[in-house]
Design brief:
single chain, mainly alpha, two-stranded antiparallel sheet, 7 helices, 2 strands, binds heme C
């Protein structure tokens, strides 16, 4: 009888503790914390201007399949103007440069999870340098990966949506992203073919 009530009060304390922790995490979700990220190292060299030929050691011209800088820059102009403002709100805390994070993101234990998410997000899709993104190799692979998560509605991750209820992409935003992906893929293909 005695050990049973001891068990019960232990369970009660655990439950109360969990509720308090959850409540604190939820509260700190509404407080923003200004972060200063380390300076970005320069992006890895990605493109060559269209009119600039490259030669190998033996003097043969390298015929490259990579899109020239002008093509990437024209896609990036549309990205900066139309697409980035959407991603800024909903994606770039993990995939880009966060200038503000919710307070829970710096308080353990939630911060451990958040930090891991932010690292993994950039490993898979690094949007810190704008377009071209990094992560999947060629620029069109990144675009296709982006379209895939938009269609499947798999980003942001569910755990993030639970904390940020309106962080999912709206239908309009999805349409805008998919349209940009499609146009950009066409631009890349036109140049390649
Ligand atoms: C809470 C952090 C977080 C947010 C916010 C977030 N992501 Fe992610 N994202 C991740 C993580 C972690 C991964 C890698 C692991 C995984 O797939 O879950 C990832 C992976 C991806 C990938 C690569 C998938 C692949 O096939 O390799 C894309 C594309 C992506 N996210 C797009 C987005 C977009 C678009 C948004 C905004 C609508 C967004 N993410 C918001 C954390 C985040």
């Amino acid at each position: 009888m005695g050990s049973c009530s001891v068990m019960r009060s232990i369970i009660r304390y655990i439950v109360i503790g969990l509720v308090i922790v959850m409540g604190m995490i939820l509260l700190t979700r509404f407080i923003s914390y200004k972060v200063h990220e380390a300076e970005l190292s320069p992006p890895p060299v990605k493109c060559v201007p269209a009119n600039q030929a490259r030669f190998d050691e033996e003097g043969f011209e390298i015929i490259s399949q990579d899109p020239p800088c002008e093509v990437l820059e024209s896609i990036n102009r549309v990205y900066l103007q139309k697409v980035k403002p959407v991603l800024q709100v909903k994606c770039l805390m993990c995939h880009g440069i966060a200038d503000q994070v919710p307070l829970y993101a710096i308080i353990p234990p939630a911060s451990w999870l958040v930090k891991r998410d932010m690292q993994n997000a950039k490993k898979r899709m690094d949007m810190r340098y704008d377009f071209p993104f990094l992560g999947h190799g060629a620029p069109n692979d990144d675009l296709e990966a982006l379209a895939k998560v938009v269609r499947e509605d798999s980003m942001p991750p569910l755990r993030y949506k639970l904390m940020h209820w309106r962080s999912g992409l709206t239908e309009n935003e999805k349409e805008l992203l998919l349209k940009w992906v499609q146009e950009s893929l066409q631009t890349l293909n036109r140049q390649g073919g």
